[in-house]
Amino acid sequence: MSYVIVNFIWDLIIKGISLCFQDISWMSEILMVISGLVLLGLMIPLLALNVRRLRDTGMKNGLNYTLNTIGFISPMFLIIGMIYQIVLLVLLCMPTGKFQKE
Fold this sequence. Notes:
The chain is mainly α. Helices cover 77% and strands 0% of the residues. The chain is built from four helices and no strands. It has helices spanning 2-20, 25-56, 61-73, 78-92. Helix 1 (2-20) packs antiparallel against helix 2 (25-56) and helix 2 runs antiparallel to helix 3. The chain is elongated, with a radius of gyration of 17 Å. It starts with a helix and ends in a 10-residue tail after the last helix.
């Protein structure tokens, strides 16, 4: 939840600054670099939460790391990113220990 709140607030700040400095071209480049760093800073804790939750479901480490690697690559490809988000949502909603052998 904090990820969504921080991302939303950051987006509002960027939109506000962009409107104030429309005439300055170099400012948009600086904002893009700062936005990239902020999003990277937000993605690292989110990645840790995903790994932890997928381990709680009993998923093997190899598949877990593969899914999270695809998560970093998926924003570059729209269709793959959408499919990844749906699959990840379903996997994260699985009950604890679902994939563990009894």
